Amino acid sequence: MTIPTIRVWLGGSFDPVHVGHVAMLQHVYQRLRQAAPHAPIKASFLPTAGSPLKHSPTANAHRRAMLQLVLAQTPSLNLDEYEIHQPPPVYTIDTLTAFAKRYPDDVRIFVLGGDSAASLHHWRRGDELLDWANLWVIARAGQNDTAAQPTSATLTQFFCRDQNIISQQVADLINTHQNLILIDDFVPPTIASRDIRAWLARLGQIQLAPTDNMARRDALLAKLDAALPPAVLVYIVQQHLYGVSSHLPTSLS
């Protein structure tokens, strides 16, 4: 008997990809590997060509290159380029419908951060996502301490399902193709790509003199070192992305 492939997608603009994104997808992959040690697992970043709820992203070639730098260091993860080849705006419901047709016999899991799960009512046909895949909600991802956390009750109410759709068992998700949600209490690093872009833009505006500007520069670099995979930060500096200028330390380039 052929074991179906477990396909997992973490969607986003990845503009830029940061350590929080990597931690989320690695965590999901590792939990699936523990639950299904012999099953083929394909855990993929799914960069979008453009979200109707966000800014226009950086060029596909740059975002793809940064993700490939991450994959070179994390061989268990993959890149799915389906959405970046679709004309924007791209809607998750259309993607999951296409994946269900493309992989009808495989287990399909779409990963959401808590902030995304809490905003599903803004998504196009967000209440239909479970018709095409299972959802893995990392409740604390993208949330601050005061933000409302997605709960079993709020998600069940939103999806208007008669049956119990909430599970705490990974095994449940890999034994069915849709209509289940796993709420995971894993806490990834609290980082937002928009903050990284703001730090990089501020970095690009700082001149090397006077001395206090050097201190500000070093403080921003420390934040970026903690938020970005090293190869991604080097790439951003080399390509002068997000307003970064050419006067940064040569050690980065």
From TrEMBL:
GO terms for biological process: NAD+ biosynthetic process. The keyword Transit peptide does not apply. SUPFAM superfamilies: Nucleotidylyl transferase. Pathway: Cofactor biosynthesis; NAD(+) biosynthesis; deamido-NAD(+) from nicotinate D-ribonucleotide: step 1/1. It is an enzyme of class 2 (transferase). It catalyses: nicotinate beta-D-ribonucleotide + ATP + H(+) = deamido-NAD(+) + diphosphate. Keywords: ATP-binding, NAD, Nucleotide-binding, Nucleotidyltransferase, Pyridine nucleotide biosynthesis, Transferase. It comes from the Bacteria. The keyword Coiled coil does not apply. InterPro entries: Cyt_trans-like (IPR004821), NadD/NMNAT (IPR005248), Rossmann-like_a/b/a_fold (IPR014729). Residues 9-155 form the Cytidyltransferase-like domain. Its EC number is 2.7.7.18. Pfam families: CTP_transf_like. GO terms for molecular function: ATP binding; nicotinate-nucleotide adenylyltransferase activity. Belongs to the NadD family. PANTHER family: NICOTINATE-NUCLEOTIDE ADENYLYLTRANSFERASE-RELATED, PHOSPHOPANTETHEINE ADENYLYLTRANSFERASE. Catalyzes the reversible adenylation of nicotinate mononucleotide (NaMN) to nicotinic acid adenine dinucleotide (NaAD). This is Probable nicotinate-nucleotide adenylyltransferase. It comes from Faucicola atlantae.
